[in-house]
Amino acid sequence: MFDQPIVMLDFETTGLNPAAGDRITEVAALRIVDGRIAERFVTLVNCHVRVPPFITQFTGITQQMVDAAPCVSEVVPELLRFIGRDALSAHNASFDDKFLRAESASLGLAPGHERLICSLKLARRLYPGMPSYKLGALASALGIRFSGNAHRAEADAEVSAQLLIAIGERLARTYGASRIETGLLERLTVVSAARVPQLLRQVLAAR
């Protein structure tokens, strides 16, 4: 389906902004190969910070869970090795990418992915008119089931991966795209929904 592996990433965090001191508490990275999830990297993360009560209520991740988890200095290098140079994707990708870059930079490291693909932006362009593009609402509308608890990293990453696979299948059915370049997916996230059919016809006709 996709011309190269894509790693679907999801972080759970203590807040919304790493620049304000928010940190990661859990990560899931799922590698999509040939239209299926082929590898997983999943772990809680200890950043030696307090988990706010509202985060525990929202995610179920407690202070005790992160205190017993592997240290961020161990997790992030392993995560970067897992991702490698593969394309990276996430639902609302700018959020997860900024945390990945912030946690990497704090250790003197840098991510190596060359492309960033936002499944939220892709869904807005390829499923126009949806009442909501939140992950849970999209999953329900498209018949994608959560296999774990929503707002936990692995469950959210798995649903996001299945959404990306569904987007690939939609491109194949609607436009006859049997091989989808990650570069094309990235381009689709920066054009308007109205321009998507024209862009796809141009790209596919040029092959």
List keywords for this structure.
single chain; 207 residues; alpha/beta; Nucleotidyltransferase, domain 5; 5-stranded mixed β-sheet; 9 helices; 45% helix; 16% strand
* Overall SS class: alpha/beta
The name of the CATH topology is Nucleotidyltransferase, domain 5
Please state the overall shape, judged from the principal axes of the Cα atoms.
globular
Q: Which residues sit in consecutive blocks of at least 5 with pLDDT less than 50?
A: none
* Beta fraction: 15-25%
What oligomeric assembly is this protein in?
single chain
Question: Considering the protein shown, what is the CATH homologous superfamily?
Answer: Ribonuclease H-like superfamily/Ribonuclease H
CATH top-level class:
Alpha Beta
- The helix-strand sequence is EEEHHHEHEHHHHH
Q: How many DSSP E strands? A: 5
Our count of domains comes out at: 1
Spatial strand sequence of the major β-sheet:
3-2-1-4-5
Number of helices: 9
Average per-residue pLDDT, rounded, comes to: 94
Structure description:
The structure is a single chain. With 207 residues, the chain is an alpha/beta fold. Helices cover 45% and strands 16% of the residues. The chain contains 9 helices and 5 strands, in the order βββαααβαβααααα. The protein has helices spanning 53-59, 63-67, 72-83, 93-106, 119-126, 135-142, 153-175, 182-188, 196-205; strands spanning 6-13, 24-33, 36-44, 87-90, 116-118. Helix 5 packs parallel to helix 7. The two termini are 16 Å apart. The mean pLDDT is 94.
